UniProtKB/TrEMBL annotation:
Name of the protein this chain belongs to: tRNA N6-adenosine threonylcarbamoyltransferase
Functional summary from the UniProt entry: Required for the formation of a threonylcarbamoyl group on adenosine at position 37 (t(6)A37) in tRNAs that read codons beginning with adenine. Is involved in the transfer of the threonylcarbamoyl moiety of threonylcarbamoyl-AMP (TC-AMP) to the N6 group of A37, together with TsaE and TsaB. TsaD likely plays a direct catalytic role in this reaction.
Top-level EC class: transferase
Cofactor binding: number and manner: Binds 1 Fe(2+) ion per subunit.
Residues binding substrate: 137-141, 171, 184, 188, 280
Positions of the Gcp-like domain: 27-314
GO cellular component term of the entry, any: cytoplasm
E.C. numbers: 2.3.1.234
Gene: tsaD
UniProt keyword tRNA processing, yes or no: yes
Catalytic activity: L-threonylcarbamoyladenylate + adenosine(37) in tRNA = N(6)-L-threonylcarbamoyladenosine(37) in tRNA + AMP + H(+)
Source organism: Nakamurella multipartita (strain ATCC 700099 / DSM 44233 / CIP 104796 / JCM 9543 / NBRC 105858 / Y-104) (Microsphaera multipartita)
A biological process term (GO) from this entry: proteolysis
Residue ranges of coiled coil: none
Length: 346
């Protein structure tokens, strides 16, 4: 079966075409349009701008995905769309478009969870996910440790950030340093020229009394702000690459340490790192090193599949379809606060 996936939860309009196979979903073609540049001067996503951009980009992006896959609408057997979590207006555009296509082509529609999509992205590259698996989901809005027993229906949160998400910390620190939005890719690049041991920034929630599987990044962001302020008061020039490398080391040190600890303590042998921050070079390298040392198998999708896209939504749809999931009803609507445990929305 061929699935069309539609993603509009934030500032990427993503459309992907995927074939459901025994070896997992196969990516046939995809297209992504981003309104990122329109938000850059505001330092973060402006919901109204994102909704309008989705509206304008939807039809051309669907056409581009079909062209790249060499397919036509009549080849589509089912549609999967992001039903949440995300921005209300942005989700609405995707769900409305998906309903219209499903009605016009007379195919079933599945409203699915964006976060399950980030995890499912890995199956496009590495095949079916062995379960149980432990997923570290690190994105612009989320930082969670998830126990995945079934990608199509059973995902349990075992830890989460108590304040900022990891990607949000990257974006805020980039702003403090006067760098462009989104901050993750810029800091990732600049950190390559810096010394990760130059400044010892705090590792949040790593004390003996702290919750083992939860995260905190707002103290780290404040520490970076203080460091910059102090340097300015002292008349010192801030070494931007050193700050980037040291900040990044603090983030990925905590992320990888807690993930490996959770996998070992819960007896889970497979670790997946997913979400936009999983594109980070240092996170990928340190996760690989620490998982190997602990005897864990690590799976990370290629960077292009880590950030928001429609193929990952089609990949969840593929898992749901293979598990015999019931299509969503005509009342399907976007849910900005959809919990990660709800993979398929009725
Ligand atoms: P969510 O998935 O939680 O709803 P989102 O969809 O906005 O949020 P993603 O698109 O998954 O988030 O990821 C975007 C985030 O990833 C941004 O915060 C961005 O700075 C960060 N990011 C992207 N590339 C990198 C990188 N190479 N290093 C670190 N962070 C990165
Ligand atoms: Mg985005
Ligand atoms: Fe996302």
């Amino acid at each position: 079966a061929v699935l069309l996936g539609i993603e509009t939860s934030c500032d990427e309009t993503g459309v992907g075409l995927v074939r459901v196979g025994a070896d997992g979903p196969e990516l046939l073609g995809q297209a992504v349009a981003s309104s990122q540049d329109e938000h850059a001067r505001f330092g973060g996503v402006v919901p109204e701008i994102a909704s309008r951009a989705h509206l304008e980009a939807m039809v051309p992006t669907v056409r581009a995905a079909f062209a790249r896959a060499g397919l036509e609408p009549r080849d589509v057997d089912a549609i999967a769309v992001t039903a949440g979590p995300g921005l209300a207006g942005a989700l609405l555009v995707g769900v409305a478009a998906a309903k219209a296509y499903a009605a016009a082509w007379d195919v079933p529609l599945f409203g699915v969870n964006h976060l399950a999509g980030h995890v499912a992205a890995d199956t496009l590259e590495h095949g079916p996910l062995p379960t149980p698996a432990l997923a570290l989901l690190v994105s612009g809005g989320h930082t969670q440790l998830l126990r995945v027993d079934d990608l199509a229906g059973s995902i349990t949160e075992i830890g989460t950030t108590i304040d900022d998400a990891a990607g949000e910390a990257y974006d805020k620190v980039a702003r403090l340093l006067g760098l462009s939005y989104p901050g993750g890719p810029v800091i990732d690049r600049l950190a390559g020229d810096g010394d990760p041991a130059a400044i010892r920034f705090p590792r949040g929630l790593t004390g003996p009394q702290d919750p083992a599987y939860d995260f905190s990044f707002s103290g780290l962001k404040t520490a970076v702000a203080r460091y910059i302020e102090q340097a300015e008061r002292d008349g010192r020039v801030v070494d931007v690459p050193d700050v980037c490398a040291s900040f990044q080391e603090a983030v990925v040190d905590v992320l990888t340490a807690k993930t490996v600890r959770a996998a070992v303590e819960l007896g889970i042998g497979t670790v997946v790192v997913a979400g936009g921050v999983a594109a980070n070079g240092r996170l990928r390298a340190l996760a690989q090193q620490r998982c190997a040392a602990a005897g864990l198998t690590l799976r990370v999708p290629r960077p292009g599949l880590c950030t928001d896209n429609g193929a990952m939504i089609a990949a969840v749809g593929a898992a749901v379809l293979a598990a015999g999931g019931v299509p969503s009803g005509p009342a399907l609507t976007g849910n900005p606060g959809l919990p990660v445990a709800t993979v398929l929305v009725p």
